DNA sequence: TGCATATATTCCGTTATCGGAATATAATGC
DNA sequence: GCATTATATTCCGATAACGGAATATATGCA
């Protein structure tokens, strides 16, 4: 077996920096392909191909208006990433706690 | 150019499900390679190779004790993922807000 | 019908992964 | 030094991504 396909799950889809960029700008509002092309200044096939991966993995949805296709982000599909990463949050918070304690000690000594 | 290498950044390293598993169990405590082998029941070279990728990208650190190598997670390297994903949190929270409003209306009608 | 616009698809070359099996390195203890 | 334990590395074969260029599809409009 080779590397997990990009369409296997959100983690693999989002590993590609350009696909993260696309999701970021779609976070603001629904956009057509040509609007994305203009905003990011990428070749149109590049945009379409990355949207294709994001759509296959369910991270974006598409709506047709005439010959345009409006893409929007599908946030719930990003939740597995959020759920996986948040348990590690305690490490940063713990560090802050320790820093707080250090600062307390420093303050006590200064008094 | 081909696909972004797994060692390019935390996003790519973490795209592989097995590497996420390794990081999860290292979240609990520092572990030797053989402890990971036993916990996950994978071939030893598989464990070593995945640890190698995680180490290259800075997601784990290593400490030698005799012939053992103790690996620990490097949480701050996971923060870019946390920072990228959390802005999308508002979508789930917004949904809950809307649900709350619906429930309020339902309650009002029941009174 | 014919032309223009919007988007998707295909073909190609280069590159790197992943698992498995085998082997190499390194440290310990006798 | 030699055997043993702990871990890393190498050598496959199969798979697929990515960018670029070219082309195909599909819709709208005169």
**Could you give the order of the helices and strands of chain A?**
HHEHHEEHH
Shape of chain A: globular
Q: Please summarize the sheet with the most strands of chain A.
A: 3 strands, antiparallel
* First-residue to last-residue Cα separation of chain A: 64 Å
Unreliable spans of chain A are none
β-strand percent of chain A reads 5-15%
Instruction: Please state the structural category of chain A.
Output: alpha+beta
User: How many E strands of chain A?
Assistant: 3
The amount of helix of chain A comes to: 55-70%
Global Rg of chain A: 21 Å
Biggest interface, CB < 8 A? A-B, 27 and 27 residues
Assembly category: homodimer
In order across it, which strands form the biggest sheet of chain A? Answer: 1-3-2
Number of helices of chain A: 6
Report the mean per-residue pLDDT of chain A as an integer: 89
Task: Describe the structure concisely for a colleague.
The structure is a homodimer of 111-residue chains. With 111 residues, chain A is α+β, with helices and mostly antiparallel strands.
Topology of this structure?
Two copies of one chain form a homodimer.
Chain A (H helix, E strand, L loop, with lengths): L9 H5 L2 H12 L2 E2 H8 L3 H13 L3 E6 L2 E6 L5 H7 L3 H22 L1
The first copy, chain A, binds a DNA duplex (30 and 30 nucleotides) through helix 4.
